[in-house]
Amino acid sequence: MTAEEFNKCVDLYADNLYRFILKNVKDEEKARDIVQDTYEKLWIKVSEVESTNAKSYMFTTAYRTMIDRIRRDKKQGDMSEANMHSLSHSRQYSDLKEILNEALGKLPEIQRSVIMLRDYEGYNYAEIGEVTGLNESQVKVYIFRARTFLKNYIGAMENVI
To answer: By C-alpha distance, which of 113, 157, 121 is closest to 139?
Structure first.
């Protein structure tokens, strides 16, 4: 890959990559850091990566970097998260987008990632398998489970009203 092809990859995929990571980590700073780390890793391996495989390489690298960051953060803990749960209350208005984001937040990491790649980014099962390191049948199972959970969560009237 040449420097020109690298710059083209940045222009083409930066927004999609950032959006995918942001939906999973829900922290703009962390998402920007992960995307930046991804492009740094791509630049280091620029001579080894074909320009035709750059998108897959970037999403795979970003996904793995995100998982590493999430695992590291879990070990460290987050006190602000504990305080927010104790102060939360039941909302009395309906905003489907907020409910969907809340439901996505309740999914396990792997299910949230595959559903985001499939439904938000438009990847097919094989591409999702490449990004996540799963085989196609595992991807299908995780997507099915995530969609079932989302349907049940959003379908409950007490969550929507």
So the answer is: 113
